[in-house]
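Changelog note: in this version the structure field was regenerated for every chain. One regenerated record is shown below for reference.
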Amino acid sequence: MCTGHHAAVCAGVHRGSVVGVVGDGAVGLSAVLASARIGAARIISLGSGNPAREALARAFGATDVLAERGDAANAAVMQITGGSGSIPPSNASARANRWPPPLGSPGRDRWSA
């Protein structure tokens, strides 16, 4: 749980944040829980499509659960946030960058699985 919490803190999650969590394993679910505890307004869980993990993500505070990957995930997040995107507390490690990074940016490759 501390890894997910640390990821949320390092990403700058705060009350009212829109957060994207990539992954619904132990770290991702902990990041969802930490983001909810911190007070994020919207938590988007980008998971595996596993119904049990989706249910856990929702129980832990995810407001949206998506199974899309890659460009489809970027498009889905941008659509449901009205084009504003989100900050990521987790994608297997803490990354404190805006998600998704602009196309062609130096950090873009860090978001591909």
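Spot check on this record: The first strand starts at residue 18 and ends at 22. The two ends are 22 Å apart (CA to CA).
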